[in-house]
Amino acid sequence: MSISKSQLKHLIWEQLTIVVGEKEKKDFKCPEATQDIMVNLANRNKAIKDQNYGPPDPSKPNKKFWAAKMEMWNVDTEEELRGMVCGTCAAFNLTKEMQACIAKGIGDEPTADPWATIEAGNVGYCQFLKFKCASERSCDAWVSGGPIK
Ligand code: SF4
């Protein structure tokens, strides 16, 4: 059986992807912010200040927060922003390896921080801003194409 040049290219690409993917898994280390709450808080606070990460409680209307986002994205309704949250962001890492890091880190954290408590149900890791973020929140650095799985 013969294969075409493009099929051959595709097969080589597939094999390379598997090899690179396996190496990345082997070399994977938990990001500091997933293991150290002080690093996570510092990076999260920077995200709030510099990238308007929020809102504080996604279950509330948070009119002011979403109004600022509407202005930034130049859209007329909150509806248009509905899907533009961490959960769909290209920086939102939800891989099994990262979930394991997050679970391990949460085990060591005090429970006094309400943000951390709210995030516990739907938390991932932001590859851009280096902190644990919640899928229902958003920030000015949102990029389509996520999450990373
Ligand atoms: S860059 Fe994406 S994942 Fe990170 S905080 Fe902003 S919206 Fe969330």
Outline the secondary-structure elements:
Layout: H1 5-27, H2 32-35, H3 37-51, H4 63-73, E1 92-93, H5 96-106, H6 114-119, E2 123-126, E3 131-134
Antiparallel strand pairs: 1-2, 2-3
Bound molecules: iron/sulfur cluster (SF4).
Task: Indicate the structural class.
Answer: mainly alpha
* Main β-sheet, spatial strand arrangement: 1-2-3
The global form is flat
Strand content: 5-15%
- Major β-sheet annotation: 3 strands, antiparallel
Q: What sequence of helices (H) and strands (E) makes up the elements?
A: HHHHEHHEE
Q: Whole-number average pLDDT?
A: 83
Ligands in the model, by name, code or SMILES, are: iron/sulfur cluster
Helix content: 40-55%
- The number of helical segments is 6
What is the number of E strands? 3
Rg over alpha carbons: 19 Å
* Low-pLDDT segments: none
What would you say this structure looks like, in words?
The protein has 149 residues and is mainly α. It has one domain. 47% of the residues lie in helices and 7% in strands. The protein is built from six helices and three strands; from the N terminus they run H-H-H-H-E-H-H-E-E. A three-stranded antiparallel beta sheet has the order 1-2-3. Strand 2 and strand 3 form a beta hairpin. The longest helix has 23 residues. The relative contact order is 0.19. The protein binds iron/sulfur cluster. The site of iron/sulfur cluster has 14 residues, from loops.
